[in-house]
UniProtKB/TrEMBL annotation:
Protein name: DUF6193 family natural product biosynthesis protein
Species of provenance: Actinoplanes subglobosus
Lineage of producing organism: Bacteria, Bacillati, Actinomycetota, Actinomycetes, Micromonosporales
Pfam families: DUF6193
Length: 242
């Protein structure tokens, strides 16, 4: 088993400040910014948080990697993870942290970060279910685009292109796509779609259930899924991309 390096050895500059919170505050001060980070007592060198003035946003997390000198910044809200990105440069983080804390828009936070931080989801402060569903589709599409899996991307894009599926909440587990009429709690599954490398597609009734059909194109997969939508499930206009 690979031995985990001592955090103080991997991050001596952070250890010299006493905590990641203090190191980030010092980096911010170097840029003329003021941060009030919260140190994590259980792991002072590798973890720190920052609350936001916006009530629908959770505290932002900054975490250091255990085996490689790199930091991960992540921020969630009432509809899931909104920002997530990694950088080897601690000095690139203060403006992202401050933007999240002071209620800057996701677009403004992205402009302040010279590395990709947006997950695809947009903010839904009021928790409106239709907007939460639309935001989740954007997250699912971006995740598929970054997957390096053409068949999976083709499946997600085909599902999104179908209005009857686009009005439903998409959720994935082990790269299998399912649908629900509401974000939470999920309604019973009527179809779980699976892409295989090489071009085969499988339709199951639920995750880990038996195969109902195996086809060779995303279009056939989507057609079967649409035919299985229970009457009255997810009624309403299809969601549009923002």
């Amino acid at each position: 088993m690979r031995e985990e390096p001592d955090p103080a050895v991997l991050y001596p500059d952070v250890a010299a400040h006493g905590s990641l919170a203090a190191a980030l505050q010092a980096a911010a001060a170097d840029q003329g910014l003021s941060l009030t980070m919260i140190a994590t007592p259980s792991d002072l060198v590798r973890h720190a948080t920052m609350p936001s003035v916006l009530p629908h946003r959770e505290a932002l997390f900054v975490s250091a990697w255990h085996f490689e000198r790199k930091w991960w910044v992540s921020g969630s809200a009432n509809n899931g993870l909104l920002i997530s990105g990694t950088t080897p440069d601690l000095h690139l983080l203060p403006r992202v942290v401050l933007g999240w804390a002071e209620g800057a828009s996701l677009g403004e936070i992205a402009q302040a970060a010279p590395f990709d931080v947006l997950t695809g989801r947009f903010e839904v402060p009021d928790g409106n279910p239709a907007d939460v569903i639309a935001a989740e589709w954007q997250y699912t599409l971006k995740d598929a685009q970054q997957s390096d899996w053409p068949e999976y991307l083709a499946l997600i894009e085909a599902a999104y292109a179908e209005p009857k599926l686009r009005r439903l909440y998409p959720y994935t587990s082990h790269w299998e796509l399912s649908f629900s009429a509401t974000p939470y709690p999920f309604t019973p599954s009527f179809a779980t779609l699976v892409a295989s490398r090489g071009g085969a597609y499988t339709v199951k009734e639920w995750w880990n259930g038996p195969a109902l059909a195996q086809v060779t194109t995303p279009a056939e997969t989507i057609s079967i899924a649409v035919d299985r939508i229970p009457e009255g499930l997810g009624q309403g206009p299809p969601h549009q991309d923002r």
